[in-house]
Amino acid sequence: MDLTKDYFSNLGLPCSYQIDLAALADSHRLLQQTHHPDRFAASDEAEQRQAVQTASYLNQAYGVLRSPLKRAIYLLELQGMEPLAPTNTSMPMDFLLQQMQLRERMEELPAAADVEAELEQLADELLVMHKQLQTDFAAAYEAGQLPAAEVVVRKLQFIEKLQQECNDLEGRLLD
Amino acid sequence: MALLQIAEPGQSAKPHQRKLAVGIDLGTTHSLVATVRSGRAETLADSKGTHLLPSVVRYRADELPQVGTKALQHLVDDAANTIMSVKRLMGRGLQDVTRLGEQMPYIFEACESGMPMLRTAAGLKSPVQVSADILRVLAQRGEASLGGDLVGAVITVPAYFDDAQRQATKDAATLSGIQVLRLLNEPTAAAVAYGLDNEQEGTIAVFDLGGGTFDISILRMQKGVFEVLSTGGDSALGGDDFDHAIANWICDERNIQNLTLAQQRFLLRQARQAKEQLSDTAVTTITFADWPETSCPADIELTREQLNSLLDPVIAKTLRATKKALRDGGMTIDDINQVVMVGGSTRVLRVQEKVAELFGRPPLTSIDPDRVVALGAARQADVLVGNQTGDEMLLLDVLPLSLGLETMGGLVEKVIDRNTPIPVARAQEFTTYQDGQVAMAIHVLQGERDLVQDCRSLARFELRGIPPMAAGAAKVRVTFQVDADGLLEVSARELTSGVATAVQVKPSYGLSENEIADMIKASWSNVDADRGARSLREQQVEADRLLASITIAMEADGERLLTEDERQVIIKQMETLIVARNGDDHHAIAKQIEILAKATDTFAGRRMDDSIKRALAGKAVDNI
Known about the structure:
The complex is a heterodimer.
Chain A: H1 7-10, H2 21-35, H3 45-66, H4 68-78, H5 93-108, H6 115-142, H7 146-174
Helix pairs in contact in A: 2-3, 3-4, 4-7, 5-7, 6-7
Chain B: E1 21-25, E2 30-37, E3 40-43, E4 53-54, E5 56-58, E6 66-67, H1 69-72, E7 82-84, H2 94-100, E8 108-110, E9 116-120, E10 123-125, H3 127-146, E11 152-157, H4 163-175, E12 180-185, H5 186-193, E13 201-209, E14 214-222, E15 225-234, H6 239-253, H7 261-277, E16 283-286, E17 300-303, H8 304-328, E18 338-342, H9 349-359, H10 372-384, E19 394-398, E20 403-407, E21 411-416, E22 421-422, E23 424-430, E24 440-446, E25 456-463, E26 476-482, E27 488-494, E28 500-504, H11 513-525, H12 527-561, H13 564-581, H14 586-599, H15 601-616
Parallel strand pairs in B: 1-11, 11-12, 13-18, 15-19
Antiparallel strand pairs in B: 1-2, 2-3, 2-4, 5-6, 5-7, 8-9, 9-10, 13-14, 14-15, 16-17, 19-22, 20-21, 20-24, 23-26, 24-25, 26-27, 27-28
Helix pairs in contact in B: 3-4, 5-10, 6-7, 6-8, 8-9, 11-12, 12-13, 12-14, 13-14
């Protein structure tokens, strides 16, 4: 396996945002079964080292392609873009406003009458937004509108951060 | 004919002969060795027919160490030379060990590597050596029962074992002459023992309740690949807590106070018997026949219902930890297809009931919960040496605790998150903090918290020979490589010059089980405190940077460009910032940074003008 090639070609998938996740999982497993260090338990050190590198690459590739956000970032990076560069911060005003409202809701949540229901409601809404952004990204990317795709990636990142915080909050409140 | 069968060492003369491999469960209280014979995994007995080997080693002057039951008999009369529970010492530093010292009657000494050494009649022994002595007995037992040399062994470790603990375990095996085929997580081994790897796919909870520890692991199995999705538990929760709850109840019922040590032992023994009895009968009687005191309390009846109400609070804790582990793995109760029971305390009926109730399905209990881990390890060993051609079982594990690096101000930057599938390689770029910096200290840490002091230090090394550059111009890439056993190697390279260094992280100590559980717990309960601490460190770093640059500017141009009064104002503000910087209010520091920055605005402006003037001096306008 040529580890300098991109994740899509090494895992035998079309270089696209909309991928078959089941095919991805199958391909990852199949390749791990051939390249994992356990298959080289009795081999010499050089072969074992090679196996560790290949297996690491496969885990990395699987982790990136499986995640809607990381996959989007990776596709743009393959096009020579840097969607998460620190200089890249401009966001549409309405999106920022929506973010602020969501954050306020999260801050007030611990004081809510039915915390569990509120949390669930918020998590559901975030999930819907996340799904919509994936569709938006696919549309922009397939149409070759890379700057627009880049904005969607940053929006996705915002939403994932909120989802993570929502999750942390749930852990703290319900434990 | 015999001449034709000469073979290289390590190579089988007969290519179709089965290779001999074993699975070893190196446990805290007892250890086991198992192998696959005629397609069945079985634990191996010693010459007297005993399977469980107590994990106890007794050292004597000028004699071989005693291991197992023989050593156990000297636990009281030769306490300092009879080492038990050595697993709790594996991969730990002297400091951790002395903290445990109250519970352990051993004499510890430091050695050069920082590894704690036990002083015994046979000289200084490290925990790795003690474990090696246990492993050696198990390997010999394997060779005696199988009638040949072992190709290798799979050794099990708790899923949350950190780098240091895994490395120490591997070292012990190497020391005892065992070729380690793989370090396998205990819960994964248990799932393999039940043959869950033969199912198409599923999500498995492994509920492991021992005498003093509780571990819960969530595994996902898909077409022969096992992934550990998350682990959790409580390193101070187990069957012993059941016994204590029952003993306390007896004390309350019979108004017994100020127990002697002998009375305590008596009560715990009675409690344990009652607990075991009530798995078969609905009611039992606790008697005080041998009560170590003259006035003997009356017998007590304990019903199963009463027992349940005593056990439930302890069991509830395990269920809470279980739910937490599910959440960590992004799973819900409904996602779990199988529940595997491990550890002697899962024999308690109430535990089985409550676990069944939580998951809405009966847990798997058909294999002896004390042996299930060793049996699974044996199956994996059989696969790894290639005895099961065509078998596709592959075990993918995850990193038990996050790995990171120290950054400015004592903060930890995570490089690989907890629960990332291994093997994994990850690189992170860092830059220099000062002008002309030629070396960078690299400090590798493991843990979930934000501050260095709250994580475990795994290794420190230095990257030297960076060419002098302005602060922020050098690019140092630090690469972490974790192998399939969870062992870490770190390398660093300065990208503009190519200067490189690498270190196999082989720390002399690791985390205590308690610390790991506490660290994970603390990362939740301390999120707010960490955020505050992080802000404080960030402001302190900012303050230091500003103070340093103003000091340099004052020394260079202060007298030339400022009046005495202006200088005094700046010095006064610097002093105020230093006071704030040494306090713990990050808001105050931020405010003083702002005031000082403003107070030096004019000075900065004059220096700018001055440097432009100097740059322009003597140059014709055309050349600008």
